[in-house]
Amino acid sequence: MPFDVAFSLPPEEAMAWHIILGQQDGNVWDFEAGRWKEREK
């Protein structure tokens, strides 16, 4: 995503994209805690 687009998004939409792209990378978002779940090592 181009920087001009990313920085012009409202905070809620930017966070949604952050979560979506992070989950595609194999991470798991904990919606109740509002943070990423720890990965098993």
Automatic annotation (TrEMBL):
This is Uncharacterized protein.
